[in-house]
Amino acid sequence: MNYLDLYLQRNGIKRYDVYKATGVSQQLLSTHTSKSIEKYSNKVVMALAEALNKTPGTVLDELLALQKENPAFEAYNPAELLQGLEFKYDRIIIKGAYCSEVYKIMKGQLSETESMGFELGSAGVATVLAYAINAARDLFSNSDKVSRDIERKIVSYKLESASEENVTIRLKQLDY
Q1: Residues of the chain with CATH 1.10.260
Q2: Which of the four pLDDT bands, split at 50, 70 and 90, describes residue 71?
Q3: For the packed helices 42-52 and 56-69, what is the interaxial angle rounded to 10 degrees?
Q4: Is 131 in a helix, a strand, or coil?
Q5: Cβ distance 13 to 44 under 8 Å?
Q6: CA 103 – CA 149 distance, rounded (Å)
Q7: Sign of the dihedral defined by the CA atoms of residues 83, 86, 92, 94, in that order
Q8: At residue 4, does pLDDT exceed 70?
Q9: Are 75 and 81 spatial neighbours (Cβ–Cβ below 8 Å)?
Q10: Fewest Cβ atoms closer than 10 Å to its Cβ: which of 10, 82, 111, 140?
């Protein structure tokens, strides 16, 4: 899980803000997005502390508490949702006006049982055909790149809950 970006999001800043405040490269920060918190370098922890005007000990304590909490990623717009999908967060909560769009996308997907029946019934040919149809649709689609990427990546998730205020999706592979 990407605890670095989640921690930054909770504190209302981005990697770029840390770079501007401390001079620590965004590339170095990016390498820490896939690391466990125990493997964060001192340089990164100290940069986070400086950018947030906290002590390194406080930052490390908050990061470890975040890891223990295992929170859901929150997205308020398509760009944030795409970020959550790319990092494959276990759970993503979509809030605000964009949640109705995500709900429509999720409801348009086949259930796992329907997908399996379709694939077995066609002896696997349907999977190849569906891939070709999706590639052609993407090629001639009028939607922007972010929307296409979201639709392509969101198939790895299933709808966990939905309301007018938010939609929660969960990574399918966690069920296996």
Answers
A1: 3-69
A2: confident
A3: 100
A4: helix
A5: no
A6: 16
A7: positive
A8: yes
A9: yes
A10: 140
Distance CA 46, CA 54 (A): 9
92 strand-pairing partners: 73, 169
**Residues whose CB falls within 8 Å of the CB of residue 72, separated by 6 or more in sequence, listed in order:** 89, 90, 91, 92, 93, 168
Q: Does domain 3-69 have CATH number 1.10.530?
A: no
State the residue for tokens 């939609």: 167
Order of strands across the sheet with 91-95?
73-75, 91-95, 166-171, 157-162
**The one-letter amino acid at 168:** T
Provide the CB-side half-sphere exposure for 174 (13 A, CA): 10
pLDDT in tens, 133-159: 667 766 676 677 888 888 888 888 888
> Which of the four pLDDT bands, split at 50, 70 and 90, describes residue 80?
confident
| Beta-bridge mates of residue 94 | 75, 167
What pLDDT shows up at residue 3? 86
SS3 91: strand
N- to C-terminal Cα separation, the chain: 18
